[in-house]
Write a structure and sequence with these properties.
Oligomer: heterodimer
Structural class of chain A: mainly alpha
Number of helices of chain B: 10
Shape of chain B: elongated
Order of helices and strands of chain A: HHHHHHHHHHHH
Order of helices and strands of chain B: HHHHHHHHHH
Largest interface: A-B, 51 and 45 residues
Radius of gyration of chain A: 24 Å
Structural class of chain B: mainly alpha
Strand content of chain A: under 5%
Distance between the termini of chain B: 18 Å
Distance between the termini of chain A: 14 Å
Helix content of chain A: over 70%
Number of strands of chain B: 0
Chain lengths: ~300, ~280
């Protein structure tokens, strides 16, 4: 019931997002047809383009036409190559998803133990280290971290490729080699946030009554930690992890650009620089929708594991 | 007594953050008067010179002083970060206060459209906005303000919702205080604290996003020294002249770190109940 209610609320949000993206792209100053054709623009060319992309129709009609296409999975054609945008996105989506997945695993493997170590021994060395890493980690620009990793590990030490992509189908090993640095770049800054918040979650649980009771009845410290603190801290930690996945979808745009990965993020950026507005409109909506859905799924899962949330 | 000692010990982090922010802001403000040399003078003879005592950050591919460029770039960085956070406070704050105070229909009318803005990743929304706006520091500030406004509105709304049910607000109402007075004298001071904390977090993020946008070519326009643009330039030379990418990046990090430390400290100091124990 709770999950269903949240899912239904997502529909108007998605509609709002599509209206925002559509409206935004119509705010572009000047005639998009002229902008796209650039110096090659002739009156006939402009007229043909306007007709082909229905730019002469009233805006509500253009929007409804786009929306009707979206519902059928048809994103329309792009201004330049006349390729179906849906196909272009589908080709690039696996790269972005694989990158995000690897980065999530990396962030969890680095960040969660860091937070647990810190939280378990408050004010100890590990705690201070966690705090310091957390603070510095969230302050490092991820695109700069990517450049530094590339400089050190691939251009300097020659351990890993500095860019490009090999599909999983061709060679799993080479595929992973190309994704290690980008994924690590995304993972490290997210791991800092995750470590910080995991620490806070552990500390929060550690001062609850039932933990103090467990200690008072003479339970050894490791047993207190593993049996009482961690299971209860797991819920907020997983929530934070879910939110980081969404964040990484945004970070992927920059990282894909640095490591020349053919993902949806880079497609968006290329389209922005080429002023290919139909493509920008579609990819921004697709990435935005994925971000929204990941956050929604996190919310719903939180409600499933912690019934108290459902009544908020 | 014990409390004040531990308070003092706890205060070094935000104070250090404040110090970093103040020094950087002062350097940026006074940049044209500092003995740094020109950030724009080109000299082919000095191109790609490494760091030295006279030129601690080295020189770029056009022989320009990187130290001077970094200090001048802070003008854009900090300017954009502060302008965008201020705009978000001025627009998002009142929206959130009205939404939180009135609840019901006005709340829905204000917050649901803002939810749509928040449904996008911040960087993505900023890139999308810049693709429409064009490039330039002022436009980056406006784009960031659009991204931040819903965040600020949510913070203000939550603070108002929590405050307006307090007994002292009821008391003031019973004494005959009107809505403007209730909001200005009793509710706003309590909403100001979380908004201030949020503003310093947003300034940290603003520096990061401005650098990212400029790096990607959709932020500040090239002749203006910007940390993101310097990193973009430096990428082409990072093997011969690593200092071209190292120092601008460290400069971004230092400024962001300063604002994050300040935000952390402000949160603990102004809102002791939510302090996570340090």
């Amino acid at each position: 019931m709770y999950a269903a209610r949240r899912l239904i609320l997502a529909v108007p949000l998605l509609l709002g997002m599509s209206i925002l993206v559509f409206g935004l792209m119509r705010l572009v100053p000047g005639d998009p047809a002229v902008v796209v054709l650039g110096y090659k623009a002739t009156p006939e060319g402009v007229r043909a383009l306007r007709e082909a992309f229905h730019l002469d129709e009233p805006l509500p009609e253009q929007y409804m036409r786009w929306l009707a296409g979206l519902v059928r999975g048809d994103f329309g054609l792009d201004f330049r190559q006349n390729e179906p945008i849906g196909r272009m996105i589908l080709d690039r989506l696996p790269v972005t998803l694989e990158l995000t997945l690897l980065a999530t695993v990396g962030a969890a493997l680095i960040g969660i133990p860091l937070g647990l170590l810190g939280g378990a021994r408050r004010r100890g060395f590990a705690d201070r280290a966690t705090l310091a890493i957390g603070l510095v980690g969230v302050s490092i620009p991820d695109f700069w971290l990517g450049i530094m990793l590339m400089l050190g590990l691939s251009l300097g030490a020659g351990l890993l490729p500095s860019g490009g992509f090999v599909p999983v189908g061709e060679s799993l090993l080479e595929n992973l080699q190309h994704l290690v640095l980008p994924a690590l770049t995304l993972a490290l800054s997210r791991a800092a946030v995750l470590g910080r918040l995991s620490r806070a979650a552990v500390l929060d649980v550690a001062q609850r009554g039932f933990v103090q009771f467990a200690r008072a009845k003479g339970l050894a410290e490791p047993a207190v930690l593993f049996r009482h603190v961690l299971p209860n801290a797991a819920i907020p930690i997983l929530t934070v992890l879910g939110l980081q996945v969404g964040y990484m979808l945004g970070g992927a745009i920059v990282v894909e650009m640095i490591f020349t990965l053919p993902g949806v993020g880079r497609m968006t950026l290329d389209a922005v620089l080429e002023r290919n507005y139909p493509v920008v409109q579609s990819t921004v909506l697709v990435i935005g929708a994925m971000f929204m859905l990941v956050n929604l799924a996190t919310d719903i899962l939180y409600g499933v594991v912690d019934p108290r949330v459902r009544n908020r | 007594m014990k409390n004040s000692v531990s308070n003092l010990r706890r205060a070094w982090l935000p104070l250090a953050g404040l110090a970093i922010v103040c020094v950087l802001a002062l350097a940026a403000l006074l940049a044209p008067m500092l003995p740094l040399g020109s950030p724009t003078d080109i000299s082919k003879d000095l191109a790609l010179r490494g760091p030295s005592v006279a030129e601690p950050f080295g020189r770029d591919d056009l022989g320009r002083s990187l130290l001077s460029r970094v200090v001048h770039a802070y003008r854009v960085s900090l300017g954009v970060a502060m302008t965008s956070a201020l705009l978000a406070v001025l627009v998002g704050g009142p929206l959130g206060i009205v939404a939180g105070y009135s609840e019901g229909l006005p709340d829905q009318l204000i917050m649901r459209p803002l939810d749509v803005l928040m449904a996008f990743p911040a960087v993505l929304l900023a890139i999308a906005l810049m693709s429409v706006f064009g490039t330039g520091a002022m436009l980056v500030s406006i784009a960031l303000a659009v991204v931040y406004t819903p965040v600020m509105a949510r913070v203000a709304r939550a603070a108002v919702l929590a405050t307006k049910i307090e007994v002292y607000v009821d008391g003031a109402r019973a004494l005959g205080a009107g809505v403007p007075r209730l909001v200005m004298a009793h509710i706003l001071p309590n909403a100001a604290t979380p908004m201030l904390v949020q503003a310093s977090v947003l300034m940290a993020i603003g520096i990061l996003i401005e650098a990212a946008l400029s790096f990607l070519g959709v932020g500040v326009r090239p002749p203006t020294p910007s940390l993101g643009l310097m990193l973009a330039d430096g990428r082409g030379f990072m093997v011969q002249a690593p200092w071209m990418v190292v120092f601008p990046g460290l400069a971004v990090m230092l400024a962001v770190l300063g604002f994050n430390m300040l935000a952390d400290g402000l949160r603990d100091w102004l809102d002791p109940q939510r302090a996570t124990g340090r």
